[in-house]
Write a structure and sequence with these properties.
2 copies of one chain form a homodimer.
Chain A: E1 9-12, H1 16-32, E2 40-43, H2 46-52, E3 59-63, E4 65-66, E5 69-70, H3 71-81, E6 85-90, H4 95-103, E7 108-111, H5 116-127, E8 132-133, H6 135-145, H7 158-168, H8 173-180, H9 184-198, H10 203-212
Parallel strand pairs in A: 1-2, 1-3, 3-6, 6-7, 7-8
Antiparallel strand pairs in A: 4-5
Helix pairs in contact in A: 1-5, 3-4, 7-9, 7-10, 8-9
Chain B binds a DNA duplex (30 and 30 nucleotides) through helix 7 and helix 9.
DNA sequence: CCGACCATCCCGCAAATGGGGGATGAACCG
DNA sequence: CGGTTCATCCCCCATTTGCGGGATGGTCGG
């Protein structure tokens, strides 16, 4: 990927101006590297991008917000089929899609409203093989690593949190009971409180809540 | 933190040369910002750092590898008591400590062997309030987000994945049944297959698996 | 001391679940 | 064509769960 004089680059974005911005920035980076810009391909929709996937690209910049599909599905396809560096590009930092995008294997995550020279810098870094994340995204990632004890305080007592954790791992009442050295009745009582306080009514929901609280 | 003409900066590292390197880089950044460098404090050990904690700093650069303690404990203390930007500094990128450090609330993670101008850049970014991560660390973080992409493909059929998704959201058999317009018997049959294939035996575990597969 | 939480234990019961079985049609593949 | 997998339906039955009670002792703040 690094040797070629004319790297093949895929740019996917439904909005023409955004594509221009990206392509220009990429061209600038390539020029700086003394490389040819003839290998740049553009796609303006999900389907358009999908038909290009069999072509082998060295780099790809994929907008997440396409009218006819999800950007991260493109990213997943790209990353799973051959060796390529992919950056997600988007305007908004909806934390929902960040997860999905990073899970799809993106090597970078750029926010379009950055100043041009920062965009240039990030593209440069990405093409140098380094992960390239916009500050907002990096912040979001960092937050994921912190013990998710966010959210004011939850109304749960320590014991309930303990039970929540174990049940959230998939244990059943009896197992939790012997783990905590208490009666299974008690476990179920705590569970009742948890159900009431968190407004849920099944083990599955409890597992979800446990995840949400990072009580793995 | 941003307004002061003489930001208070804490530098913790047991090795003198490393401290020099950091302090010099910090001074350079401060000079560039037209700020005074008189607020820089140095500590050469864990204990030395701990006694300085009550002083209020704006920024801190903490080496993780101290002879008498763990850098991330310092970071945790700093972050938990007041508003401050903290970067971890280290030579090696032992993935063990990365977890702990990020969990402690570090805003940046610098690797010392970077070229001076990159170090300068990273410090600058951090002081501007942006998270600042060395590429190796960013890579490591990105890897954490990828679905522990083990396993070939999962053995589930489309229908089973559909059921998995709904059950993973906390629905019960009957609800899934009407959602999919099939009999609740069938739902439970699919569930049986899922249990067998994923080697689980409860709703809670199914919910966990669903999460793991991004079938939110 | 009293009320409030909390953790602990228990009972009972209807409903849901988990695990075993069997059966049918449709689709697909060699 | 015969075999396999899939999706669909069904039955049975022991166990678990969800939900309604009631009860005791401990701790802590007012």
């Amino acid at each position: 990927m690094s040797g070629g004089l004319s790297p093949r680059v895929l740019v996917v974005d439904d909005l023409e101006p955004a594509r221009r911005l990206l392509v220009d920035a990429i061209k600038a980076v390539l020029a700086k590297r003394g490389q040819d810009a003839s290998g740049i391909e553009e796609a303006s929709s999900f389907t358009e991008a999908m038909v290009l996937l069999d072509r082998k690209f060295d780099f790809a910049f994929v907008d997440l917000h396409l009218p006819d599909g999800r950007g991260w599905d493109i990213i997943r396809s790209l990353k799973s089929s051959y060796d390529i560096l992919v950056a997600a590009v988007t305007v908004m930092d909806d934390s929902q899609s960040v997860e999905a995008t990073l899970a799809a294997g993106a090597d970078g995550y750029l926010i379009k409203d950055a100043e041009p020279e920062l965009l240039h810098f990030r593209i440069e870094r990405l093409m140098a093989g380094e992960p390239s994340l916009s500050p907002a995204i990096a912040r979001m990632m960092l937050a994921r690593f912190r013990p998710h004890q966010n959210e004011e305080e939850d109304p749960l007592t320590d014991r309930e949190r303990e039970v929540l954790s174990l049940v959230g791992r998939g244990l059943r009442a009896k197992e939790v009971a012997e783990q905590l050295q208490i009666s299974s009745h008690t476990v179920r009582d705590h569970l009742k409180s948890i159900y009431r306080k968190l407004d849920v009514s099944s083990r599955a929901e409890v597992a979800i809540e446990a995840q949400k609280r990072n009580l793995t």
